[in-house]
Amino acid sequence: MDEYMRSGAFLTEFKKTQEFEKMLCDYTGAKHCIAVNNGTITLSLALIAVGVKPGDDVLVPDWTMVASPNSVKMIGANPVFVDIEPVTMCMDIDKMEAAITPKTKAVMFVQMNARCNDIERLVAICKARNVQLVEDSAQALGSFHKGTHLGLFGAVSSFSFSAPKIISTGQGGALLTNDDELASYIRKLKDFGRNGGGNDTHGVIGWNFKFTDMQGVVGIEQMKKLPWRVTRMRQIYQTYKKHLADVRQIEMNDHDDHEQGWIPWFIDIFVDDRDSLSRHLKSQGIGTRAVYPPIHQQEAYKERNNMRFPVTEYVSSRGLWLPSSSKLTDEEIKRVCDAIRAYYAAKDRTQGQQTVLVVGGAGYLGSATVMRLLKETNFKVKAFDALMYEGSSLFPFFAMKERFTFVKGDLRTVDFAQLLQGVDHVVNFCALVGEPICKKLPEEAVAINQEYNLKLADACEKHGVKRYVFSSTCSNYGTQEGLLTEEAQLQPISVYADTKVNSEKYLLNELPQLPVSVLRFSTAYGLAARVRFDLLLHEFIRDAWVDKEIKIFGADGWRPLCHVDDLARAVVTVFEQSASLPHKDVYNIGSNDQNVTKRMLGEMIAERTGCKLDIIGNKVKVDPRSYRVDFSKFEKATGFRARLRPVDAINDIVSGLETGAIGDKILYEAVNVPVNESVQEIAKAKLRELEGKSKL
Ligand SMILES: Cc1ncc(COP(=O)(O)O)c(C=O)c1O
Fold first, then answer.
1. Tell me: the pLDDT tens digits for 655-683?
2. What global pTM score does this model have?
3. Is the CB–ligand 1 distance for residue 65 below 6 Å?
4. How far is CA 330 from the centre of its chain?
5. Which residues of 262-295 are buried (b: 16+ CB within 10 A; e: fewer)?
6. How far is the CA of 265 from the centre of ligand 1 (A)?
7. Interatomic CA distance for residues 511 and 515, integer angstroms
């Protein structure tokens, strides 16, 4: 810088900028490099240069830094989000191909953390479909794919030199291209559309996005360090990998094969308890950062908040960036890894010494929770169930002898002291679930769901359980307008909800020593070890499958839904975060974007099965329940977010039916009503009718 200042220091872009550009060309093998003032404007310029006009569509991955879609918006074009694929975490090429329409002018392919999937295929598709390819290589300087630097596959690519990048000029960016015409056009666009250096004739409209020689000087010095940083980043990744190799909870999504020449920009890991791990590391003085949230969930893209990009959602809910500076020493990396290992070792140790009692463990939610506890934690699990609907849901767990025990019994007769022996935590699902069975057996419903349920809670308080999770329901809200928080009035309009509301009151007010969490669950759906076909979504699928038509009454009534596996995960989250969760609190469990109307559900199923929808007017039959629920309290408290969506379960169940894995019998018999009741008769009649009938 000293030498530069003494030489007369031309401050706007000139010789030093050109030298910097040449160094980038030499390093990457590009024919042209055009430096500009940041790595966002590069993208807008690239799009303009390849001919994207206001109103055109540009395909952009849903998982990227927000600059990617915003650069499309900036020129009045429309970013169309595409899901990523789980291995490279770049745009899913099949989904990209399916998303191309006559309005699609370009694809913006982002090399997230310098990863890159089958880019040759991507190039071929873009060529065949006459779509321009712009690479957002902001995170990819130093990375090659089969010998070619990333950014040299499409028409033009974009790099960023902002502070955290592998080289930085404070702010700054550059475009690379092998196309002479594009290069000359971009040079004009960034310099007021000037026809040539120094003159004031303007052939095209352009702006001022110029670099400065001051940045050029910094860039030149940074480029000298690039080869060392590239080597060091690879070593840093390998050091992390070595120290974390045997931590079963961590995925690293490795792309470290030499053919690819991947140089990670940041070290990213993927874990189920990202927020809690991050908090622990912070307490040890180690800073981390959650990876980017899905773009479609940003408030800035409000109108797309209800869209679905399952892979992006999954990846971004689990990803954590670890300290990644090229200046990190091996000792510092080891300290970070030791802190991570200590966190998981302590968690395993604590959980290994504790037992969770799952009351109603053979049921729909119960067996899903047992599955989650055994699979994702180190807790021991004791399941208790009367086996009203038999016990096949428990079969897979018996093999895990060291961690699983089962007690058969009825809540009304079991010896609580014996049941609670060795138990630390309790989740209580035991109930006659749903209105049909409660209406049929009202006395039993009150006895099981309320009276004996609360006797068990009394016993748990005496026993000193560390956490008592009570399974309640969002249907407690009855019919109300607006998005209902936990503070909303309860308006139970069924025997079932009555028993739940009464129990909640008792648990929250009458047992001062019981550390209770009341979870108000959304209506569950999805396959689990015990299947139920008397749930809203499942009944609709059955109708679509058997009758090829869904009759919907109260079609515009709202209902919050949540996948059974996500509900189970929420319970596990409570136990895992028990130390930091307040007692005597109530949480709605579900997902704000899964408040759906029955009409919406019907439409989703119709799209998958081709069935007809018969919307029955409210005059004929009214659904007394309609409620939309706010689930943000639990998310704020624990970081929990639902991962699965109705469309996932629809696909699973319809595939199950198509392949025969779900037999006709289950469609009618997997229901919460006592054996030999009238529904069973209807089922038999339906099954007889079904014989020989062809399916959808
Ligand atoms: C993928 C991606 N695109 C674009 C940008 C924007 O670059 P800049 O900050 O230089 O505008 C970034 C910056 O982090 C990025 O990661």
1. 999 999 998 878 877 777 654 455 456 55
2. 0.75
3. yes
4. 32
5. bbbbbbbbbbbbbbbbbebbeeeebebeebbbbb
6. 12
7. 9
Where do the CATH 3.90.1150.10 domains begin and end in the chain? 233-346
139 lines ligand 1 (CB under 6 A): yes
- Write the pLDDT tens digit of every residue in 295-304: 999 999 999 9
As a whole number of angstroms, the distance between CA 542 and CA 406 comes to: 32
What CATH number is given for 2-223 in this structure? Answer: 3.40.640.10
Q: Is the Cβ–Cβ distance between 73 and 62 less than 8 Å?
A: no
- Alpha-carbon gap, residue 642 to 319, rounded angstroms: 15
CATH code assigned to 233-346: 3.90.1150.10
Neighbours of 55 (CB within 10 A): 10
CA–centroid distance for 416 within its chain: 40
Q: What is the rounded distance in angstroms from the CA atom of residue 36 to the CA atom of residue 367?
A: 58
Ligand 1 centroid, distance to 147 Cα (angstroms): 24
Q: Which is the closest atom of ligand 1 to the Cα of 64? A: 1
Instruction: Give residue 643's pLDDT.
Output: 86
What tens digit of pLDDT does each residue of 597-617 get? 999 999 999 999 999 999 886
Rounding to the nearest 10 degrees, give the CA dihedral for residues 371, 374, 380, 382: 20
Give the residue, by CA position, lying nearest to ligand 1 atom 10: 39
Ligand 1, residues 162, 165, 171: which to mutate, most atoms within 8 A of Cβ? Answer: 162
CATH 3.40.50.720 domain span(s) along the chain: 353-690
The tokens describing 641, both together, are 């977010």
* Tokens 């392949």, residue located: 659
Q: Among residues 244, 294, 310, 233, which one has the least CA distance to residue 271?
A: 244
Start and end residues for every CATH 3.40.640.10 domain found in the chain: 2-223
Q: From ligand 1's centre to the CA of 124, what distance in Å?
A: 26
Tell me the pLDDT tens digit for each residue of 354-401: 999 999 999 999 999 999 999 989 999 999 999 988 899 999 999 998
Residue nearest to atom 8 of ligand 1 (CA): 39
39 Cβ below 6 A of ligand 1: yes
Of the candidates 309, 272, 306, 318, which has an alpha carbon nearest to the alpha carbon of residue 63? Answer: 309
Give CA–CA dist 622/696, Å, rounded: 29
CATH, range 353-690: 3.40.50.720
Task: Report the greatest alpha carbon distance in the chain.
Answer: 97
The atom number, within ligand 1, closest to the CA of 162 reads 10
Helix axes of 41-49 and 67-74: crossing angle, nearest 10 degrees: 50
| Residues 6 or more apart whose Cβ sits within 8 Å of residue 171 | 37, 38, 161, 162, 215
- Which distant-in-sequence residues (6+ apart) come within 8 Å of 408 by Cβ? 384, 385, 386, 387, 391
User: What atom of ligand 1 comes closest to residue 43's alpha carbon?
Assistant: 4
Six token digits for residue 524:
């569950």
In whole angstroms, give the CA distance from residue 559 to residue 545. 22
Quote the CA–CA distance of 362 and 530 in Å, as a whole number.
7
CB 219 within 8 A of CB 165: no
- Mean pLDDT for the chain? 91
